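re: that chain from earlier
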Amino acid sequence: MSSIPNRGLMQRLLIRKTVEQVQRETESSPLKRTLGPWNLVFLGIGCIIGAGIFVRTGNAAALHAGPAVLLSFLVAGIVCALAGLCYAELSSTLPVSGSAYTYSYTTVGEFAAWIMGALLLLEYGLAASVVAVGWSGYVVSLLGDYGIVIPLELTGPSGHPILRDGVAVLAADGSPMTSLFNLPAFLICVALGALLVFGVSESAKVNNVIVAIKMTVIVAFILIVGWYVIQHIDTLKANWDPFIPEATGADGEFGWSG
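^ sequence. v structure.
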C-alpha cells in the first residue's frame, strides 16, 4: 500500500509547495540565466511604457478627463507602483522561473496556480493580439504616406466590414467589403516569435534598442513641449480652465468619473 496519506478534494486543491522545494526543483532546470540587471530593467520599462502612452493620452484628455488627465496619470502611477512592489516581493522571495504561477503555488495552492497559469496565457494572448493590431494600423498608415498601399482586405479582422473615415467601403457590386486577414499583424507576431525562439539574449538586445528609442522620444517630447509651455504659459493656461470639466452625465465623460 502507498504511504502517501489520502487527501480530500479540498486538500488536494490547496496543496502548496514550499519555497525551499521550488528552489530545489529549479536547480536542475535546463533553463539558464542569460539576462543581466540592465536587460531586466529595460524589459520592465518596456512593459510599463507601452504603445498606449502614444495613442491613448490624447483621447483620454479630449474625451474623458480634460486637463485633469494629470490626475489620471498620478492615480495610474500609484497603482503601477503597488503592482511593482508586489512583483518585487515575488521575484526576491522566489528567484525562479514561473512568474505568478509559481508564487500562487507556494502561497495559495495548486488549484489557484492552475487558474493563474490559464489567466496568464489569456492575458499574454490578448495583449499580443491587441498590440499587434495597433502596430498594424500604424504600419499601414506609414507605408501609405510613402505610396505603398496594402489592400484593405488584408488590414483587418476576418469578416469585419472595412471602414474608411467611419463609412463602410463598398465593392463594385455595391455590397459592403469585408476584411479577409490582418497580414501586418500576423507578420509582426511571426517575426517576434521567431526572434524569441532564436534566443533570449538576442531578443533582449532588440528590446533594449527599442526601449532606448522609445525613451528618447518620450524625453524629447517632454523637453520640447515643456519648453514651449514655459514660453507661452500666459496663452496656454486658459486651456486648463476648468481643470476638471463638467461631467456630461455619461459614465467616464469628464467630471471625476472621467
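The beta strands are 163-164, 167-168.
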